[in-house]
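Provenance

Sequences were taken from public entries as deposited. Structures were produced by running a predictor on each sequence independently, with no templates supplied. The record for Glycosyltransferase family 61 protein from Endosaccharibacter trunci is shown for reference.
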Amino acid sequence: MAEASLQFVADGVITPLTTIQFASAERKGSFNGGVYLSNRSVCALGLQRKGGYENIPDPAEGWNEQPLAETGNAIFCGMLQNEHFGHFISESLSRIWAATHLGRNYGSLAFYLRHINLPIAPFVEDTLRLIVPHHQMTIVRVPTRFEAIAVPEQLTYGDSGFVYGHPFLRSTLAPLRALRSNDKTLLKVYVSRSRLDARDGGIIHEKRLDDYFRAEGYSIVYPETLTVRQQFELYNDAQHIIFSEGSALHMYALVARPTQNVYVIWRRERHPQFSWQIQSFGGRAPMGDAHIRMLWIPAQDHGNPVHARALLDFGRLHAELLRLGFIAGDRAWDQPSEASVDEELAEFGRISGYHYIPQAVSH
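Predicted structure for Glycosyltransferase family 61 protein:
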């Protein structure tokens, strides 16, 4: 039987994240914030794992002489990604499993914020309300003493910080799998990025894909226009799902089923973490090779493709979708002309302020 550690700390302190040193190609990043025992030494189980970063809490002497805010009992839930939906779904639920193992005496979920100067996006509360409706969220903004802190193990895949389908976590997230709309028109869906902000990155001429899939009988879905509940209902209802690669894949993973057929259109290199995350929650490995001809990366991103624009090989993409049974039309999809690519890149640059630099892709 799978196990996970749970440590109880009496008269403990939780401190917020107040400084962060960003990671680079040469070194790991770091951030402070954490849990302290009654003797004010650091609680090792409370150290937050995050890919490319190290959690280094400050020495207790820095705040020991200041009056501490005080409260009752809480479950320490670590870093709250309060601005980026994908990181919230994939990182901030990794300790929440303890909520289903403890009584109402631990009805508070204590987080510290990743972005200390930004508000908490509505999707945070909307998601937590679906999973643990009887628990309240406590945001630690100053060093805060608790009568008792339950510190759960962070259930992540190695040091990546990304959640995986540990049995305890799957049990806690079970309410999400019960959400259904029973809308029979949503059995085949294409999850598009074509309406996202120009700075978010994506596929050149993605609106063409919307049209191609619509002609194949797919419902075109723009997840940013749906509530959190509607998105989970969608992923529970659908039988055939095609994703334009992005945060929606992390959300789908939490409710993935082995009977669903999933294909990913990659806008960067093929990321294996999506596959293992989906499979760990009980889904089938997503299908789809990377069919990228060229990447255009903003100069200020120094080669990081997070905001890049990808030019796909539409012919190869169409052929693979046809071979795998996701589409039926055998007429090849038109490849965008060089002039139309330049025109769309210029428009993205005008809106976003980015200067795009071409980067060849190896296959």
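Residues 6-177 form one domain.
The first helix runs from residue 61 to 64.
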